[in-house]
Amino acid sequence: MGIPIQNKTVLVTGANRGIGRAIVEEAIHRGAAKVYAAVRKLESANSLVEEFGERVVPIRVDLEDPASITTAAQEATDVDVVINNAGVLKTASAVDEHAIESLQYEFEVNVLGLVRIAQAFAPVLKANGGGALAQLNSVASIKSFADVATYSASKAASYSLTQGLRDSLRAQGTLVVSVHPGPIQTDMADHAGFTEIAEPPALVATAVFDAIADGEFHVWPDSMAKQFGGAYQSFAENVVNAEMNENPV
Question: Where is the Ketoreductase domain (predicted)?
Fold first, then answer.
């Protein structure tokens, strides 16, 4: 069952720029009552407050700082929808001399950060009737790219965890959504060398809230993502979305 965003309270990590900012803007345009702009530095959300007034509430969240996440969950007790957008990317192949360092950093933020968000906010969502948790994964979750192999590995892990969260949180009525963008016009895409083919962040924001409203698990928001999603559809339907009662190991 889907969840309309109108009159809901939404929390968005990495809200100050790129996809996160677009998600905040889309939530407001769809009638969200309040949006917590979860950022590492509160002042980075000032322009959102200036634009939308009291409907945007900056709150400190650093995915590398478990205490900040716990504190945020204690403060934002009225949250209905959590969108974990924040993430990091290092340009490193598996044989790069800095591969292990990059992998450790990306797993700390992209993987452990997701677990910390889920553990902190799942009880809040349950108390408020279930709500939704959306995780920004990537097309790199299902296809590794050599030049960003460590990032791809971290996103594959976060996608796997997102699937687990979907099943774990179903009983409490929480909808879990896995979002898989291709190259989007962000600093991260520029750093990875995808500037020329990147598409607007608004595509992701629109697709996220459409999926939440429709109760969908997978989201493929842009042109490249849709190609991946089309090729992946059979596996997703027959394996990822299938009910499997037997432990495979």
Answer: 8-187
